[in-house]
Amino acid sequence: MAERNSFELADNPPAMIGTRVLDAPRELVWSVWTDPKHLAQWWGPDGFSTTTSAFDLRPGGVWRFVMHGPDGRDYQNRVTFDEIVRPERLVYHHGGGSDVEPVQFRSTVTFEDLGGKTRITLRGVFPSLAERDRVIKEYGADKGLVQTLARLSEHLATLTA
Q1: Considering just the CA atoms, what is the radius of gyration of the chain in Å?
Q2: In what order do the strands lie in the sheet with 105-113?
Q3: Distance of CA 115 to CAs 118, 142, 154, Å?
Q4: What is the CATH number of domain 5-160?
């Protein structure tokens, strides 16, 4: 069987890929990923909290949020949804605009039903290797992705206990 949890970097196209098997059914994982009330409980790396100001889950819809760092810094974010296939796949692009962090990438999140468990794979594709490497260096995005998926797993555990 494949690894329950993994992280890898791909160079062509330049991407970060995180995979985690979650002990929760796919419908629940989808709901927790697409409901701002739940996102506030787990989105972001360790020590971060997230405040959502807008969430419109439809193609062309926007999720505006602030990630509050443990050092007190606020990180403004914008996600625009490109494709929504409930409960199998979300495709969105991150960034764009002078009012958000200077980070741009396109993500595809897949939710694979494993019969009561769910394998989630998040593939973030960057415009270049240099941009991916900058985001890893300046923001710790590699560790942040792993920690965010771990926080998702922990949040789901509280819901299924």
Answers
A1: 15
A2: 5-11, 14-22, 118-125, 105-113, 89-94, 74-85, 62-68, 49-55
A3: 8, 29, 19
A4: 3.30.530.20
Cβ proximity of 89 and 110 under 8 Å: yes
> What is the distance between the alpha carbons of residues 49 and 62, in angstroms, rounded to a whole number?
19
Pairing assessment for the beta strands 118-125 and 14-22 based on DSSP bridges: antiparallel
Tens digits of per-residue pLDDT, 49-63? 999 999 999 999 999
| Residue 57 near residue 80, CB atoms below 8 Å | no
The per-residue pLDDT of the chain, averaged, comes to 95
Sorted by where each begins, the domain ranges of the chain are: 5-160
Put simply, whether the predicted model's pTM sits higher than 0.90 gets the answer: yes
Helix, strand, coil in percent for the chain, rounding step 5? 30, 40, 30
Q: What is the pLDDT of residue 19?
A: 97
Q: What pLDDT is attached to residue 96?
A: 75
pLDDT band at 113 (very low <50, low <70, confident <90, very high): very high
DSSP state of 158: H
How far is 39 from 64, CA to CA, in rounded Å? 12
Q: Is the pLDDT at 28 greater than 50, yes or no?
A: yes
